[in-house]
Specification:
Layout (H helix, E strand, L loop, with lengths): L27 E6 L3 H13 L3 E7 L13 E5 H9 L9 E3 L1 E6 L16 E5 L9 E5 H18 L4 E5 L5 E4 L5 E4 L3 E4 L1 E4 L13 E15 L8 E7 L2 E11 L2 E11 L10 H11 L9 E2 L3 E9 L4 E2 L2 E3 L5 E2 L7 H18 L3 H29 L7 H14 L1 H13 L3
Parallel strand pairs: 1-2, 1-12, 2-8, 5-14, 12-20
Antiparallel strand pairs: 3-7, 4-7, 5-6, 9-10, 10-11, 13-16, 13-17, 13-18, 14-15, 15-16, 18-21, 19-20
Helix pairs in contact: 1-3, 1-5, 5-6
Length: about 425
């Protein structure tokens, strides 16, 4: 990929210049609590760009537990892919690039010939029109966490006096004192200058944060088999009256084209669990646009309740929350992990460039607010709109989609925010 501003993670080339001229703290004891994608990415970034820092990664998961088979699907933006490529942990062979995104609204909606071939309001965004190699990528949780964990273990083995793996050691408490230190209780209590909490979990299992709202929706997730002629690398998002329905492209398996399914339903009227596979396929084929083609097969589905659960701030004195620990979002926009990786990137960049930990944390809070709140507010509004029964709301949503498709500069702005966040 040619070097350009857009080729760097989140469009910020300065973050990957040499460490000369950096004014970060002369030493730092950093605890990372949670060895998921956001926590491990943060630890690897800190190990690379904070060469004087002592970094400890804590996780309740034993190191010997194999995480590579975890099938949960992750959708990553282009900025996230580029960040992981820079860290040399991107598993390109296991990931499916997203080349196009199609967003449409199912009937009842506006219908007009000027909407396009389908006669329905829709937005098409392609990597080609955005002049990028891909819009993002899809892969499983295990396929991402396994190389991240292996890279961290390799780094820790090379610098055992500076980098510490504390797998199999659940953190039971985090306490702060007035001297600017954080006590992390695992097997024994240890003191750090900064603790980053990256343990998120799913909405139904979390303690409620400052901003919390139960959408009273379920997400049914699994995989489907597409028709052989279906285009590769296309992600579909369909707005239905019952909630959003998404297909995310997966790598072909045994010659079969596949997609990850995210099917949202209102909890008060959710009959997906009682349907047979044949009935589920029939309903999905009725709701999806013709461009998808008929679905041929469907896996067993898992159900997850959906809600918003967010802290008002990322920073609490010397504790920082990132990823799902800071904000758990509805999957309608697919931005949860991407937001967490941008949090991690910005935190390490601020620690590298600011003269003290406290000034770095002030910088992070200020810098991350526009991107973070734009994502939270937009996702929340979209999620709530599916339970509103205001007259004309589907028509208004359809007009918005049609206007977006008809205004290329606005569509480019949306595509840029999808790929790199708000900058």
């Amino acid at each position: 990929m040619p070097e350009s501003t857009a080729s760097h993670p989140f469009g910020a080339s300065r973050a990957h210049s040499s460490s000369q001229g950096a004014t970060g703290p002369s030493s730092l004891r950093l605890a990372v609590v949670g060895a998921g994608p956001a926590g491990l990415a943060l630890a690897l970034l800190a190990a690379r760009y904070l060469p004087l820092a002592q970094i400890s990664v804590f996780d309740a998961r034993p190191l010997e537990r194999d995480v590579s088979g975890d099938p949960r699907t992750l959708a990553l933006s282009l900025g996230s892919v580029q960040l992981l490529q820079r860290l040399k942990v991107w598993p390109a062979a296991q990931a499916q690039a997203i080349r196009e995104v199609h967003v449409s609204q199912a009937p009842p909606t506006l219908s007009a010939s000027w909407f396009g071939a389908s006669g329905e309001p829709e937005v098409h965004i392609s990597a080609e029109e955005q002049a990028v190699p891909q819009l993002g990528a899809v892969l499983s949780y295990g396929q991402l966490v396994a190389p991240l964990q292996a890279a961290w273990q390799t780094a820790a083995a090379l610098e055992p006096a500076r980098l510490f793996s504390r797998f199999g050691q659940p953190v039971t408490a985090i306490k702060q004192d007035n001297a600017g230190e954080v006590e992390v209780d695992a097997d024994i209590a240890e003191r750090f200058d900064l603790a980053v909490i990256a343990e998120g979990g799913v909405f139904s299992e979390q303690a409620r944060k400052s901003l919390s709202h139960d959408y009273r929706q379920n997400a049914w997730v699994g995989t489907v088999t597409l028709s052989p002629g279906s285009p590769a690398g296309v992600a579909y998002e369909r707005f239905t009256r019952r909630g959003p329905l998404a297909l995310l492209p997966l790598p072909d398996q045994d010659g079969r084209r596949r997609a990850a399914l995210v099917w949202c339903q209102p909890q008060d009227d959710d009959d997906v669990g009682s349907l047979s596979d044949a009935q589920r396929l029939m309903v999905l084929n009725q709701q999806l646009p013709d461009a998808v083609g008929p679905l041929l097969d469907i896996s067993a589905l898992k159900c997850f309740p959906l809600g918003l659960n967010a802290e008002r701030t990322l920073v609490d004195r010397r504790c920082v929350r990132i990823g799902n620990a800071a904000q758990t979002l509805h999957p309608v926009a697919g931005q949860g992990l991407n937001l967490g990786l941008r949090d991690a990137f910005s935190l390490v960049e601020a620690l590298r460039r600011q003269p003290s930990v406290d000034s770095a944390l002030r910088r992070v809070e200020f810098q991350r607010a526009p991107d973070r709140w734009a994502t939270i507010v937009t996702t929340d509004a979209l999620a709530r709109s599916f339970v509103w029964r205001w007259p004309g709301l589907p028509a208004a949503r359809g007009v918005g989609l049609a206007a977006l498709q008809a205004l290329p500069p606005v569509k480019r702005l949306l595509a840029s925010q999808m790929m790199f966040g708000r900058r």
